[in-house]
Every structure is written in C-alpha cells, then in structure tokens.
Amino acid sequence: MCRWAAYFGEAVFLEDIITAPCHSLIAQSHCAQEAKSPTNGDGFGLAWYGDRPEPGLYRDILPAWSDPNLKSLCRQIKSGLFLAHVRASTGGATSRMNCHPFISGRWSFMHNGQIGGFEKIRRALENSLCDAVFDQREGTTDSELFFLLMIDE
Predict the structure, then answer these.
(1) Residue 60 and residue 109 in contact, taking contact as beta carbons nearer than 8 Å
(2) pLDDT tens digits for the chain (153 residues)?
(3) N or C: which end of the chain has fewer CB within 10 A?
(4) How far apart are CA 1 and CA 29, in angstroms?
(5) Distance (Å, rounded) from C-alpha 14 to C-alpha 49?
(6) CATH number of the domain at 3-111, out of 3.40.50.620, 3.20.20.70, 3.60.20.10, 3.30.230.70?
C-alpha cells in the first residue's frame, strides 16, 4: 500500500519531513515493516503551495529514494502546505500520470487504498463527469477519478 505525508503549519523546508529525518517518508518507502510490500517503488509525487493559489507539482515513476531531483527540490522548497506520496501500485499502470498527488486549479489530492469493485463501476463514474472535468483525466487510477468526481460537484 502507498504511504503519504500531509503538512499544514508554519512554512518548513520539505526535506524536514520528506527526506532528512531518519524516519522520513523516503526512508519508510524502502524499508516498510508492516505492509504487504516492503517497498513503495512505483513512483512518487509532491504538491506544494507557495505564493500562488495553484500548487506546484512534481511526480515521477522512479522510486523516490533514487531521484536526485526530489532531494534537491525538497532542500530548496519551503512551504506551509504540502502533500507527498510514495506509490506501491495495487492496480493501474506505473506511469507519471498515475502517481499522486493529483491537482486541479487550486486543489490537490492524494489517496491511500483502492475503491472496491472499481472496474465494475468505472465507466459509469467516468460518464458522470462533466466534459470540462473529464478532459482533466490524465491517468487510469481510481484515486484520480475519485478526485475528479469531488471537484465536479
């Protein structure tokens, strides 16, 4: 299952939570002791808020611990609101578009788990989206569709 961190408070460097501590999100992503899989190596992502209302976004399919850009970004970005996610795929292709967090306008979202019976209801859920929101769908995950359903309301 995936792991994630969410932070809201006084602005801190992302590295203070995501990469630097001995029990950081990145450390947990490659040595999980209580999970179905000991690694979260199917991609990662960050969404952070700065001076603009829309969040910044960085996602990749590399394992988080092996991406030098992630470490560099976390060392430089200071934010009072951010989301970080390391993925252990339970379905859906390993692709950048399937990595969390997902963003739309000023909103960002991530999810841990899976929607039971998703393949049986997927088409009906996708068809319920208005065209403008449906056009934002980039990936194939249940999580992204769930997010789009929320912002469509």
Answers:
(1) no
(2) 778 999 999 999 999 999 998 888 877 777 655 555 666 667 899 999 999 999 999 999 888 888 999 999 999 999 999 999 987 766 666 889 999 999 999 999 998 878 889 999 999 999 999 999 999 999 999 999 999 999 997
(3) C
(4) 10
(5) 11
(6) 3.60.20.10
User: Rounded to an integer, what distance in angstroms lies between the CA atom of residue 27 and that of residue 7?
Assistant: 17
For residues 151 and 153, give the distance between their C-alpha atoms in angstroms, rounded to a whole number: 5
Cross-strand partners of 84: 5, 46
pTM: 0.87
**CA–CA separation, 46 vs 67, rounded Å?**
13
The burial of 105, by beta-carbon neighbours within 10 Å (0-12 exposed, 13-18 middle, 19 or more buried), is given as exposed
Query: Catalytic amino acids?
Result: 2
